[in-house]
Structure formats: structure tokens, C-alpha cells
């Protein structure tokens, strides 16, 4: 059964590739927003299956990578405060701030703990009532509802020692900011499936309407991505950009109404810093005033110090789609997954990390 299933998938993939080649006549730059898509494209050599008319660019869809050095410095400064237990997802540990990292702070004596969910962080707060437990909240709309749920749970339990440093990012505003800059011209966007499972596809309608850019929400299997590219090519060739879903098993136009309600109850849109892009209005999430006592940035006094970017690192340009990892003089020489200089080489969804890992498979 497994062999038959794989064979059928192969047949479907071959059919999609033939269709893309047959109808793609116009040069088209397509950006896959999500780092998970970047990894899948490189791992399976999908770029080599596409016609020369199509160019794939990686976007700012790695939440670890887009976290600005200034925000990382805040997390590190918080971690060094006496009596504070800092909790975070594992992929943030090695990301360099201006002069240190959470991993280095831990090595120097700070109590920094990796958790797999916000519920783990809440449990640490329950078990350590004498400590102040801070959860570093990063990610897009995919993770924000779980952080909102943890705050509501902490309020219900009257946990007085649980806090969140909200560094969350919203995806549609940054897509519009990139297109408004005019720095990179795009004909189509492979929209992030996991994010759209929460937000739905409707938030991308202004992108298609106002910028004339085709948008298709994709899953993460190779066939999913090929199907999305096939649909994007159809829109581009027809000259009718719109928003479509190629991931109907995971995404509905209206999204996850319950998760969105959770987010809206706790968070409000706010300006956010993006690595290599700067501050973008309405692209972040801050705690509403009624939940201000859970806001680590409000409740603690700390000095993150001056901000400094890694010398020679072009992660910001890569996140904007202006350059690729191959354009970086540090790539695969001074900057490797074992000794990363910038965050794009740290995260498993970072473009540099993916290009390094699959550089033999992806030769285009």
C-alpha cells in the first residue's frame, strides 16, 4: 500500500510539472513566504523541476530569523535578571543578539529553560512561586493563540509570577510592506499554510487586489507546493491575480475562528521590528492594557544595551528576497550551522540553514 501511494504521488507530481512547463510563458518571480516551504523546496529539488520562466525567492517566513537583534537583546537582558526563570522554544537559544545569546546567558548562570509549549512555562511558574517566570513569545499567528491561552489560564489561576515578552509578528502586514517598498518585484506568493490555518486566506485578499500579486495558500508536501505553483502560474498567465487555497485540508477562508478570538481577546496589533526591514506598523502583537500585568517589558526594569548587527551577515537582505545565501561571503565558510554568525543559519527553517543542508540536492 505504501509503495502504491508513493507511486501515485509521483505520478501526480510528474503531471503537475508537465502542466507548469506547458503553460508558463511569462517570467514570474514567486516568493514562498514560509521557511517550512523553503526547506521542502530545497530538500526535494523542486526548483530544478520548474521551467526557466519561474524564479523562486525565499521570504521572511522564519520567526526566529526575523526577530530583530534589539528584541533578542531584551530577552537576554531579562534572562540575566536575578530571580528570573526565562522559558523559550529551543530554536531561539542559539540565535545571536548584539553581543550574546540566550544559550550563552545560560552558560554564564542565567536560568534559561527550553519548553515545548506555553503550558510547560505555566507549570514552571506553578512549581517556582518564589521566581518570576518569563516566556519569550516569538512566532507568527500560528503560535500567538497558544500564548494568549496561557495568559488567560494564568489569570484564571491568579498566577502572580508569569509574564510574556511578546515579540510576535503578523504576516499580511509584512507582505504588504515588502511589496510597497518596490525593492523586489513579485508576480506570485506561496502563502504560508500553517499561518493561514489560523488566519484563513481572506487577509491576503488586499495583496492580490492592491498589488496585483497572485496568492495561493500551500501545504508542505512536495505535491502541495507544486500544485500551488501550478495555480499561481495559471493566475499569472490569465492576468487575473486572486487568492486561492491549495491546502483545503488544513485551511478555510475564514480561518480558525476560535483561535482568532483567543488572539483578539488578549492581543492588539502594534508596530514591530523586523530584522533587515525595520519597524512595520501593525505587524506585531502587544498585550492589551487589561492584561498589562503579564507584560514583561512593562513589569521589569532592564537595560538591553546598544544594538549591534553581526558583521558581514546579510540575513536581512535574504529575508527581503533581495539576495540569496550564495550572495553572502560568510556562507558555508565562516558561517555554518555549527558556528552560525546570523539567525538565518541558526533556525531549521532559516534560508541559510536550508541552503547549507541541501546544497548538494539544490544545484540551481
Q: Strand-residue fraction?
A: 15-25%
Overall morphology: globular
The CATH superfamily of the domain at 65-170 and 255-299 is known as HypD, alpha/beta domain 2
Estimated structural class: alpha/beta
| Average pLDDT score | 94
Secondary-structure element series: HEHEHHEHEHEHEHEHHEHEHEEHHH
| CATH fold category name of the domain at 65-170 and 255-299 | Rossmann fold
CATH architecture heading of the domain at 65-170 and 255-299: 3-Layer(aba) Sandwich
Q: Which percent range fits the helix content?
A: 25-40%
- Biggest beta sheet summary: 5 strands, parallel
Radius of gyration: 21 Å
How would you describe this structure to a colleague?
The protein is an alpha/beta fold. Among the domains are: 65-170 and 255-299, Rossmann fold; 315-357, no CATH class. Helices cover 40% and strands 18% of the residues. The chain has 15 helices and 11 strands. The protein has helices at 2-23, 35-43, 63-66, 69-79, 102-107, 118-127, 144-157, 171-181, 193-199, 205-211, 222-238, 257-266, 296-299, 315-319, 351-357, and strands at 28-34, 54-61, 84-88, 111-114, 132-137, 162-166, 188-192, 214-218, 243-245, 267-274, 278-287. It is globular and about 65 Å long. The model has no long low-confidence stretch (mean pLDDT 94).
